[in-house]
UniProtKB/TrEMBL annotation:
Name of the protein this chain belongs to: Glutamate--tRNA ligase
Keyword DNA damage carried by entry: no
Annotated motif 'HIGH' region, positions: 9-19
Compartments, record wording: Cytoplasm
Name of the coding gene: gltX
InterPro entries: aa-tRNA-synth_I_cd-bd, aa-tRNA-synth_I_codon-bd_sub2, aa_tRNA-synth_I_cd-bd_sf, Glu-tRNA-ligase_bac/mito, Glu-tRNA-synth_I_codon-bd_sub1, Glu/Gln-tRNA-synth, Glu/Gln-tRNA-synth_Ib_cat-dom, GluQ/Sye
Source organism (scientific name): Treponema phagedenis
Gene Ontology CC: cytosol
Length: 506
């Protein structure tokens, strides 16, 4: 039997990292088994639905390279893959359950339900419907329908016994029926299905063989099993994935940092780093190895290698992955990745956010501005220098700024190394200005051999000798390797900056 799995998000917000992991695990399982990965849009929550969120879903998966086989704009043989297009079908099957005695009409209005809630709260009773309409006679039901009284359709949850299901990861799970949400609504009074009804019907007719979703759905699964039995359908295999937690042991949220994929994207993370790191949140692949392509992960993924314990999201580890993948980029690739961040930083022109919106640009890795030939040439020369020092793509603008803008004069105390004084620092800069013509065209090692004797003659360490030069030339303590930076900027230009610092700061 062909493996068929699905990612079925509700477009009520931007795609977050937990949803990305669910999509990724389903995708990898499909690829590892030669099956199909289906994308389904569960948009029954019309109050919070937004077309922008739905578009963000497609953008996010496309950016990450998580390609689906059926669903969304692609369609497929088991559509529609958007729940709002299937309301008549859901109503038909809800009515079928009523006809077969597995569900019933409930005519209780909102006022009565609110009174029940208040009584339960006051008496510290378990919340839930009191099953008042479950015992209505056929005559009472006919009268209410004839009077066009609004109704919902509720599932008849067995009053006794228990419901059991097997989870691939967690083993056998059993719930007493008395602990299941009492007779949940399947079809609302406006004809909209609830998640539970639409989910089961769609999974059945789309021939879903495995449901991989977060462990927060475990309490709903017994209800789903009862629904499958009510329809006489075979349920899929379930695998409830462990939660993704912050370092404080709480569910990952905004208080821990970026959580939506947009935020990671705008903060300068590479898609390869996100894919690689998220795929390893609670799952193992090949021992002793950290870096995998998406294709490799699709071959190595095994459901039994998923951990039962919650996964802890470590931003430092993700940063490490990001750095590793940046080192693997060619200079041309790194230029293409960093250019939007550089262009949108205002380095060459003020970023016009309104114009970007009009053009349909949503992310920091898109730009209205194209590089000039001169800008490209300079940036391509500096790419090898910044590659080893980048943690995020967003680091690039400040690292290259000194090549295109004159640095402002820094407070003299920032230019003076901790172990030196103003007089010694001025002497270093004076000697450096005289030495720079000698390093023209030299590699870093050879250039440093020229600076070392001068540092020794002044009785200072080479690092303390170079720091004031760096500050004068680049305006920052953090910059690409200094010798290479000077070669790109130009010897004469570097000397002019050093002399300006000597004149105006000392």
């Amino acid at each position: 039997m062909e493996t068929r799995v699905r990612y079925a998000p509700s477009p009520t917000g931007f795609q977050h990292i937990g949803g990305v992991r669910t999509a990724l695990f389903n995708y990898l399982f499909a690829r590892s088994t030669g099956g199909k990965f289906i994308l389904r849009i569960e948009d029954t929550d019309r109050t919070r639905y937004s077309a922008e969120y739905e578009e963000n879903l497609y953008d996010t998966l496309a950016w990450l390279g998580i390609d689906w086989d059926e669903g969304g704009p692609k369609g497929g043989p088991y559509g529609p893959y958007i729940q709002s297009h299937c309301f008549e079908n859901y109503k038909k099957y809800a009515e079928e359950l009523v006809k077969n005695g597995k569900a019933y009409y409930c005519f209780c209005d909102s006022e009565r339900l609110e009174r029940i809630r208040k009584i339960q709260t006051m008496n510290k009773m378990p919340p839930g419907y009191d099953r008042c309409c479950r015992s209505l006679t056929d005559e009472e039901i006919k009268e209410n329908l004839a009077a066009k009284k609004p109704y919902v359709i509720r599932l008849k949850v067995p009053l006794e016994g228990s419901t059991r299901f097997h989870d691939v990861l967690l083993g056998d799970i059993e719930w007493k029926n008395e602990d299941i949400n009492p007779d949940p609504v399947l079809l609302k009074s406006d004809g909209f299905p609830t998640y539970h009804l639409a989910n089961i019907i769609d999974d059945h007719f789309m021939k879903i063989t495995h449901v991989m979703r977060a462990q927060e759905w475990i309490p709903s699964t017994p209800m789903h099993i009862i629904l499958y039995a009510a329809f006489g359908w075979q349920p899929p295999q379930f695998c409830h994935l462990p939660m993704v937690m912050g370092n404080d042991g709480q569910k990952l949220s905004k208080r821990h940092g970026a959580t939506s994929c947009n935020e990671f994207r705008n903060n300068g993370y590479l898609k390869e780093a996100i894919i690689n790191y998220v795929s390893m949140l609670g799952c193992s692949y090949e021992e002793g190895r950290d870096l995998f392509t998406l294709e490799e992960l699709g071959k190595l993924f095994k459901m039994e290698h998923i951990n039962k314990a919650p996964a802890v999201f470590d931003y430092k580890k993700l940063e490490w992955f990001n750095g590793q993948y940046m080192r693997l980029k060619t200079d041309e690739e790194l230029f293409e990745l960093t250019w939007p961040f550089i262009a949108n930083s205002g380095l060459f022109a003020k970023d016009d956010e309104e114009e970007r919106k009009k053009a349909g640009l949503r992310f920091a890795d898109e730009t209205l501005q194209k590089p000039t030939d001169e800008q490209r040439a300079v940036l391509m020369r500096v790419m090898p220098l910044i590659k080893e020092r980048l943690h995020f793509l967003t680091d690039a603008p400040e690292m290259v700024r000194f090549l295109f803008q004159e640095p402002g004069l820094l407070p003299v105390e920032e230019i003076i190394p901790k172990r030196l004084d103003a007089e010694k620092t001025k002497e270093i800069l004076t000697r450096a200005a005289a030495l720079l013509p000698k390093i023209a065209g030299l590699e870093e090692h050879d250039a440093l051999e020229i600076f070392k004797p001068e540092a020794e003659a002044l009785g200072v360490k080479l690092g303390d000798f170079m720091m004031p030069i760096r500050m004068a030339v680049t305006g920052s303590r953090i910059s690409p390797p200094l010798i290479g930076s000077i070669q790109i900027l130009g010897i004469d230009h570097a000397i002019t900056r050093i002399q300006k610092v000597i004149t105006e700061c000392f």
